[in-house]
Amino acid sequence: MSDVYITDEHTKIIPNIDYSATYGHQKHVPVNDFSLEDLPVCYQHAEMFDLIRSLADLTVKIEVKGVGKRRKHYWSAAQRTCVVKDLGEGEVMFGSGKVDDVFFRTEKDGQCPCDECLICPKKEWGEIRILTSAQLLYDEEDAKHFSCTLFYDDDQQIDVRYIRGHRVAVRNVERDLLMFMCSTCDLDLIRKLEGMLDRFEACWENAFDKYVHTVQWDSERLVVIVSHPYGGKKHVSLGKKSYGFEVKPSKGINYDTPTYQGSAGTFVLIPDFDVKDDIVPKTC
Q1: Residue 200 contacts residue 55 (beta carbons within 8 Å)
Q2: pLDDT for 229-245, tens place per residue?
């Protein structure tokens, strides 16, 4: 089942869902309520908590508005078995994603395509690469209709920032992977995200050093995602890898981590520090 969320853009976005309806080891909590006690006992340390929070900092809400009958979204395990569904005018689709990288640009690289620079071009600007699910995109033109909300951590939305997509960088339907570029002339935002990316990498290294010799992932099977369910504020979900599924490089893993509509495209955090064979990073 696809975890995209489609609704009329003029209706209430977030339905009344009981997020507490999870089982045993599963957790699904607002990001600002997430605490060490939510983690399995063997992971109740600053290293794992900081890693998850650093991932949350980079998690974004993605919004795609319908642009007529031409616009369709699809989800498929392979391009040859593509399933499509209409997304018409007046409809909006929500997913999640992660800031994957940032790039500083100058006028030598061309004009910044953001709305502000269309009126008054800046000499320096930047691009933000977003990692998400291929099911959010119909064709190359759709990237221009993507809108990303950053730092949507609470209902007050005091710190939120908005960026718009303008081109596709990578698309692989078989692996359910999409990278698209957003543009901005706000260099302070680019620097802030660059610092957050550095922190995520440092937190991963700290967690690796902490757990590589102390926790067997095949025993704990922890799987973490951070997403924007139903286009709402950020939530952290904890679950486990499901048994009885053979890991394949093109498919990743199955897991029981709670997901809801609007979670499509979220980065799947697999802290398999002691596993020698890499599992291909995937989106939800």
Answers
A1: yes
A2: 999 999 999 999 876 54
